[in-house]
Each structure stands twice: as structure tokens, then as C-alpha cells.
Amino acid sequence: MRTIFLKLFVLTGFLLLGKNNFAQGKLSIENVRQIYIRNSGEIMDGEELKGYFTFYVSDKVDKKTNQYTVQILDNNLNKVKDIVFEDDKNVEILESSYNGNSIMFLFFNDKEKTLEYRAYGFDGKMKSTYTKELNKRSRNLIEETYGTKSEEGSNEALFSVGDKGFTTVFPVKEGKYYSYEINFFFTDQRKQWAYEAAEEQEDKWCSAVYLGATESTVLFEVVKQKRLLSGQPHSWLLGLDINTGKKVFEISTEAEDYKFYPMNTSTIAGSPDILLLGTYYEPDGKVMKDASLGLAAWTIDNTGKIVSKKYNSWENEIGKYLSLDKKGRVADVGYIYFHKVLQTSDGNFFAIGEGYKKVVSGLGVAANALSMLGGGRSGISNFKIKITDLVTIQFNSKFDVKGAQIYDKNNNSIELPAGSGYLSPHTMALMIKAYRAFDYDFTQTNKEHSRFSVGYHDYEKSKDFKGQTFNSISYDGGKTTTDRIELTSKAKWLRVFPAKTGSIMIMEYFKKDKRLEFRLEKMN
Amino acid sequence: MRLLFSVLFLAFYNLFSAQAQQQPVSYQPFKDDSLRLDSIKKVIKINYLKDSASITGKDKKYIIDFYRERLEFINNMFVDKELIYTEETNKYLSGIVNEIFKNNPELKTLGTHFLFSRAYWPNAFSTGEGTIVFNIGLFIKLENESQAVFVLCHELAHLYLKHSNKAIDHYITTLYSDEFQAKLKALRKQEYERNKELDKLEKGVAFSSRRHGREHESEADSMGLVFMKNTGFDIKESIGCLNILDNIDKDTYNAEEGLQSLFNFSEYPFQNKWVKKEAVFFGISVDNKPTDKEEDSLKTHPDCKIRMAKLSPETDQFNSAAAKKFIVNEAEFKKLQQLFAMETLPFCYNSNRMSRCLYLAMELYKQNPDNAYIVATIGKCFNSFYENQKNHTLNNIVSLPSPLGEKNYNNLLEFIQRINLRDMAAISYYFLKQHESKFAADKDFMAAFNQSKINFKSNN
Questions:
Q1: What residues does A509 pair with on adjacent strands?
Q2: CA dihedral (B406, B407, B410, B412) positive or negative
Q3: Closest by alpha carbon to A66, among A27, A105, A107?
Q4: What is the dihedral of CA B39, B40, B45, B50, to 10 degrees?
Q5: What's the pTM value of the predicted model, to 2 decimals?
Q6: A345-A350-A355 Cα angle (round to 5)
Q7: Is A521 close to B395, i.e. CB distance below 8 A?
Q8: Is-contact B181 A26, C-beta < 8 A?
Q9: Does the N-terminal or the C-terminal CB of chain B have fewer CB atoms within 10 Å?
Q10: SS3 at position B20
Q11: Cβ of residue A508 closer than 8 Å to a chain B Cβ
Q12: Rounded Cα gap, residues A379 and A372, in angstroms
């Protein structure tokens, strides 16, 4: 979602012109001024959206240099600061993060092949900067990563860690190895550390995802594969000392009763331990091929020792609330892909998933039948993937299942290329993600996790309305409510973006007036 | 365009303190004499045509464009039903104006129209073609007729000295001059540092224009005082008036306290999360607003303290023991203040300024909890929140919180953003229910209460 947000501006090279207050034939300051928006995005503090930034070229200084302005808006769309600086004409902002003390931007210079992290104070002055030069392969990897992974409203590479600083994780390619690098920048001192996984890497392919942090440790889920296309990924949990970047632990999450793939982490009130949530598989199961067995919760201490484990299987615990078969398929819904698992401040856990299943494709069958008459193949599979309903599963503080709910939406589907009729459930899910075909948009929560809202889009065709809708499932004070907005507008185009918890931001572009409008809407 | 006008400007204010001790008057929303308003509108149009026809010179077309914009601005006030014309308000305003004109006959030829505006913000302005508008939001803040006379004399001085038209001329001769246009043409071809040069040009124009504006304000103060001293009103009240303006932006109604006391019901207790303070973003909050060194150069008006210091020698010199604070009608002045305070409610409600309407109604309720109209208005605001929230149009009728806004009003805006649909229905229902026995005979109240019942039932 966020990437669409960025690229719209990059592609259009959107030119802002002020209202022409002058009579026809006369020039005005505003119609001589030229400002090009380069990109735009959300400012996140952990999972919480704090505001938005707009990065634009405010002037051309010389052949190689532009003057840039980063305009910062708060989450009520009030302008709070303009940060002005000069830089190479090829830079753009990839992400932004805020931690209560300062704001950090991740800049990418396409021509110079550099990543640069810059932290700014409230006065708009730069507090620290760090530049990472990328080789060509790493650059390609970064472009691929940022181009395809942006499903959530949350960041992918730059994260605030309380008021301590910011951590970043990005992929690198060193020789034959696909690896990753982690950096940590302290906000109150000009200090940083870097962790380069390639230095001790044995597997050919490794990637890391930031999970969270405690007072002493920064946590990442690391997925390793012996070979790039082995189809046998293994999950590890990496804990780095927050002050030094030294490895505290790296434990396999597959060495216990089941293979465990953590998706989210949460601190536990009054305890230094960390809670990990995710899906689990048979000990000898193949994650890329087999369906998951259910949802698991692990608690680990700050040395990486597992303190407790809890497993809820589709078949038994969850099956009491949802009609599932042994493969974890829910009747009419199919397999469930989990987008988000989170704990609320009242102790409950919620898993938010979306159904998908393989069905016969009328188009594929017809196209193949026609092609066969001509002695060939159509290139389309006889099967397609149907994306079905939203599913939420609620657990209590001990991770016992409390309930489950299916939220109906209209099915949509994606055709598959020929020969892909026998995909595993996991691969199907990855394919849907790659095609951006899930209807789920984002989950928003506040810092205290006292409430959250899940947003997804749908396309309705009814007597009363035909068109796109934005839908929400909100949890607040123990109550769950749903809401729906019909996305009708006179604008050339309209997009929905995450906003402060409980609201969405709607952006509309009016082509005739060259006008871009932002508005907040509160969901029910 | 508005900046070209004379503006006794300020956005925020503390309402109604002066009326706290008054006996409450019976209130019904004003019914305007639409025929009279239409005839004034027609005269303004005729004046516009006359003024436009009298313009000569190479910039004629551009000056007429400005006059047309000015006419549209005035017309919009009529269309939006912002202007008040009732027998009572006109009689009182004419009474004051006649006192001024009687002693300053040269003003009679200016072709003026004096009108009260329903606008709740404290302001008064002369549009430059003869219309002088006095916002009720300013009138209710004043202490006596002499202060109102100073406001009117100040605006008459702008008109007499042709400040608005001079400002238009200054703007056009600066920006449409051959020299300025040549600079813009050259910059349009300049590839590098174009915007930097434009910024310099823009600042130069803005500083010059605002400086002229501030000079006009000082001139209007002095000339206004000359008109005022010819009347029997107390010219020392010009200082009193400026002193009120100097403090007018200090909002003293504690909205958070009001919310907690008004909307806490045994069946539906007030929730602290509705008013919980959030961490400030980027170091900016209502208590810590950024300051800009350029702000002083861009102000449209001189500081009130400077204005008071400039006027003081003259007020001391021309002060007369026989001067009176009230000449026309003290009782009517005070009665109108109370009615105007109430009139801000239907104005805000009907113009979809629902968050402001609630804020003003809560403040009035504190002074007068036994007024059915105020109670009904509070309920109607929540009913409107409910209806709009249901249709996802809430933010069309309420303002969004801003760290640059008024602190107390901002607290109310945060509250509105945090309550959900069910809260909106419940707050309206329980608030009105506790007044049911008292106001069961009031039509407005019962209409609001019945709607709140429907909303509440559909959420429970």
C-alpha cells in the first residue's frame, strides 16, 4: 500500500501550482514557482502512525544539486515542520520513523548507489548521519525488497526503538551470499553499531525481519536456506545487545516440538520476558509445501531460553470455533493466511487472517480447450486462487482460544500461470502476496494496544451500490464493531492510507484543478 | 482579499463573562427582515457598478477584478445568512451611528451600510465600498457603548481615508508594474535558484503590504478618535476597547472540566480515555507553539499595546468629564449582548460549525444551565455528530485538533475524535434525559431528545 503511495508521485512528477490570483496575461509569483513532489509516506513510531511526510524538490540549485523540503504533518494533517536541505538531485526517501526525540529518514540515492540514514531534531537540524555504499547486487536486492513487500502500513527497514534510537535492517549481497545488515543509531549520542550477518554466514540465503526490542535486546526473526530455491527455509531467532550490537543468542525455532515461525513479538507487562506469536508446522514438515498446524505462542527470557510454549491446533482448539478439516481449511473460506497477530492491553490476543483456496478456472479451462484445438497451450492454468473472507481468532492471556469470527466479503481471484496447479498452501499465499491480491490493507493500533482496527477493501455489486468499499473491524474496550465506507468520489483517483488509530486517510487527486486533497475519516 | 480589509482581528475569545450577572432574557433565534436585506444587497451592487465605471487608467481591468471579488465576498455573507437585520438590532445600531454622524456630518456622504454579522469570532471590518460589518462575537465582549463607538469610528476612518481601495491600488501597481513583471518573466526562464529569488520577491511584497496595512491601522485609530471626540461618548474607552482586544485570545473556559462534569452519568460514566493527553509530536503542542522572527514583519495589525500607547496622549488631552459611556440605550446594549451570545449557537449549528457550536453551548450552559435552548443545542450537536459519524462525514462538521490552536477548544476537539458512535448516542441521550422533566414542554428540546432516543436505541 505504502509503495503505491510513493510511486504515484515519482511516476507523475506531480507539479504543484498555486491558485492563480492574477488576471489573465499577467504573471504571478505562484505561477512562476515550480515545486515537484518526489515522494510521500507515513511517519511511524513503532506500530503507531504519528504523521506523514512529503518530500519535494523546492528549488534547483545547480546541475547536480537540488534544494529539498521535507514537510512534516502530524496525524491530524497539521503542518508542524519544514526541513530544508540541499542534496544530490537523485535522492528519494524510502522510509521514515519517529521515536519521541527525533525523526529519522532513510534516503536512497539511485545514481550514487548509497543508503543514507539521517536523524533530525525538533529544530529541523540534522543530528546525525550515516551513509552506506551499496554494491550493484545489494542495490538490486533493495529495489526488489522495497518494490514488492509493502503490504502493511508499517515500515520494513527503519524502526524506532523506544526513546533509545532507531534500528534498520536491509538485505545485502556479498559474493555468492544473500545476507543482511542490521544497524542501530542512538538518538542521544552520536553512536551507532552495525551487525553484518555475512561475516559468519554458512547458508547461502539469509534474511532478517525486525520483531521488536526489550530494554536490553533487539530481536529479529532470521530465515535461512542452504540454497536460494531449496524450498526448505529454517527459522531462527536472533537477539542482539541493544548497546553493543553483539549477538546475545541465535536459537532455532524449529528444534522444539514443532517448527515455529514467529510473526510478531510483544513485551509482557511486569516481566523481562518476550512473547512470540506465529504459526507452527510438523517437526519434519516442509514449510513451503505443507499447511500450518495452528497458531503458537512462545515466551523466551532475555538470554533466548524458552520459558513456555503453547500450541493451538486448527483441528482441535481452533476447530471448536471454526469448522476446519485436517489440512486447516475452513469450510467455504479455505486456507487461512495470517496477516497479523497482536496482543491487546486487556491481555487478549487476536490473529487476523484471510482465506484463500484453489478453484477451477473457467477462463483457464476455456482458454486451454481453445488452444488445444489449435494444438497448443494457453499459458493459463486450469486452476485459479480465490481470495475469500477475513477471519479473526481471539485468544485469552494464556493463549487459549476464546472465539473466532468470519467476516464475509466478495471473493476475488487471480489466474495462475500454466503448470502451477499443484502449489502448496504456503506458496499460494506467497503468490497472492506477490500479486497484491489479498484484500487486507492494514492493522492500526495505538502504543498501549488498548484498541486496534483492521482495514480491508472489497468490491461490491449490489442493487444499492456498485464499486469499491473500505471496511474495518475495530476492537475497543472489549467490543468489536464493523464499518464500511463506499469509496465514491469525483476525483480522478482515490486512495486509502493508514491514519491515527480508528481513522483512515483518503487522498484524492482532481486532475482538472491539479489538486491533491487529503482528508481523515473516523471509522465506527 | 480579507487581509485588505480593516480587521479588528482575533480568532479566540473568552465569551460571556461580562453577561454573567445579567438577568437572562428570553431568546428566540433572530428572524431577519429579508426584504430589507435584499434592498441593501441591491444598493451594494449598484455602488459596485458605479465604482467600477469610474475607474480609469491602464490597470482598470485588474482593479475591477478586485472590486468584483469584493462584491462576491459581501454577497456570500448575504447568501450564508451571516448578516443580521431585525427591527431591534437595526434600531440600536442606527442609534449609535446617528450619534456619530450627528457630530461628524462629513461622514454622511460616504454611503455607508452598517450591519451586525452572526460570526462568533471577534472582528469588525470595512469592506471599502461602504459596508461596515460588526461581528456579534466582538460586540458581546465589549463593556459599553463607547467601546462599540470606537470600533465603528475606526472602521469609518478606514472608509473615509479610502484605505481598502488604496491597498488594492498599491497591490496592483506593485505586482502588475512593468518592472515587477519583467523580473517574473526573467525568473520564469531561470533554471537554477528560481524559487529562492521568488521567495525574496514575495517577502519584499508581503513586508511592504503588511507595513502599509499596519500604517493604515494606526491612521484609522487616530482618525477614528477624532470622529469619536466630536461625540459625547467617552474617548478613554478607546483604550479600554484595545485592552479587551489585547486579551481576547485568552480562552478561559475549561472545556476538559466541562466535559467531565456535563457528560458523566451513572448509567454511562465519563471515560478518562476520552480526554487522555497524548505525547506531543515533534515538540509542538498548544503549550509550546513555535515562534517565527518574521511573524512581526508579517502582522496585519500593530500590537494593541503599541496602539494604546499611541492613542493615550490624545485621549488624555481630549478627555471630557461630561463624556458618557452610554448614550443610546444601556439596557438595550446589555440585552443585545445576551441575545447575541445565544445567536452564535444557531449560526454555528446552521453553518455546520458543530464543534464550535458545542464549545459555545457548553460555555453558555455554565452560565445558564436552566436554558432549554442551550440544553437542546448541546443534545443536537451530539445528534449531529452521530448522524455524520454514521455517514463518515464527521470531519466535515468538526475541526480537527491542532497543536497550533486554542488549548481549551483543542481539548474538546480531541474528545470528539475519541468518542465512538455509541458514545455519541449515549452522551446525547443521557444528557438530555436528565433535563427531561424540566423542559418537556419545549419543542426544540423534545425534538432533540426524541432523536437521541432513536440513536441510542439503534446502538443498544
A1: A493, A516
A2: negative
A3: A107
A4: 110
A5: 0.85
A6: 160
A7: yes
A8: yes
A9: C
A10: coil
A11: no
A12: 11
Q: Are A120 and A127 in contact (CB under 8 A)?
A: yes
ipTM of this predicted complex? 0.85
Output phi, psi for A487, to 5 deg. Answer: -90, 70
Inter-chain CB proximity A521 and B181 less than 8 Å: no
Rounded to 10 degrees, the C-alpha dihedral A399/A402/A407/A413 comes to 40
User: Rounded to whole angstroms, what are the CA distances from A158 to A94, A114, B231, B427?
Assistant: 9, 16, 70, 42
CB contact under 8 A, A27 and B185: yes
Number of neighbours of residue B178 by Cβ within 10 angstroms: 7
A187-233 pLDDT, tens digit per residue, is: 777 788 999 887 777 888 888 888 888 888 999 888 888 876 666 77
Partners of A406 in the beta sheet? A391
3-state secondary structure A83-130: EEEEEECCEEEEEEEECCCCEEEEEEECCCCEEEEEEECCCCCEEEEE
Chain A interface test: which of B192, B282, B396 (most A C-beta within 10 Å): B282
Which residue bears the cell 519535494?
A56
DSSP at B41: H
A100-142 pLDDT per residue, tens: 788 999 888 888 888 888 889 888 888 888 888 877 666 666 6
Q: How far is CA B146 from the centre of its chain?
A: 20
Phi-psi region of A472 (alpha: psi -120 to 50; beta: other; left: phi over 0): beta
Write out the three cell numbers for A169: 535492517
| CA gap B302, B320 in Å, rounded | 27
CA separation for the pair A23, A31 (Å, rounded):
12
Record the cell numbers describing residue B269, joined without a space: 460514566
Residue with cell 543509531: A185
Pairing, β A349-360 against β B113-117: unpaired
In whole angstroms, what is the distance from residue B44 CA to residue A518 CA? 38
**Candidate from B185, B205, B394 with C-beta closest to A522:** B394
Q: Is B458 at the interface with chain A, CB within 8 A?
A: no
Local structure of residue B105 (DSSP, 8 states) = G
Q: Are A203 and A179 in contact (CB under 8 A)?
A: no
CB within 8 Å of B459: residues ≥ 6 apart: B421, B422, B425, B426
Strand partners for A485: A470
User: Which residue does chain A place closest to B387, by CA atoms?
Assistant: A524
- The residues near A400 (Cβ < 8 Å, ≥ 6 apart) are A312, A317
- Chain B residue with CA closest to A68: the answer is B195
Identify whether the C-beta of residue A163 lies closer than 8 Å to the C-beta of residue A100.
Answer: yes
Q: Answer whether A46 touches B (CB < 8 Å).
A: no
CA pair distance B363, B14, nearest whole angstrom = 9
- pLDDT average, residue stretch B221-229: 96
Read out DSSP for A299-335?
EE-TTS-EEEEEEEETTTTGGGTS-B-TTSPBTTTBE
Q: Distance between alpha carbon B333 and the CA centroid of its chain, in Å?
A: 19
Query: Which cell goes with A279?
Result: 504459526
> A99 to chain B: which residues are within 8 Å by CB?
none
Residue whose grid cell is 561475516: A199
Which residues are A306's β-sheet partners?
A300
The answer to whether the beta carbons of residues B414 and B401 sit under 8 Å apart is yes
Q: Is the CB of B403 inside 8 Å of chain A's CB atoms? A: yes
Q: How many angstroms separate the CA of residue A413 from the nearest CA in chain B?
A: 29
- Would you call B194 and A27 a contact, using CB atoms and an 8 Å cutoff? no
CA distances from A103 to A132, A156, A165, A397, B245 (A): 19, 16, 10, 34, 39
pLDDT bin (cut points 50, 70, 90) of residue B16 is very low
Is residue B212 a contact partner of residue B206, using CB atoms and an 8 Å limit? Answer: no
pLDDT at position A228, please?
Answer: 64
Grid coordinates given for A429: 499465499
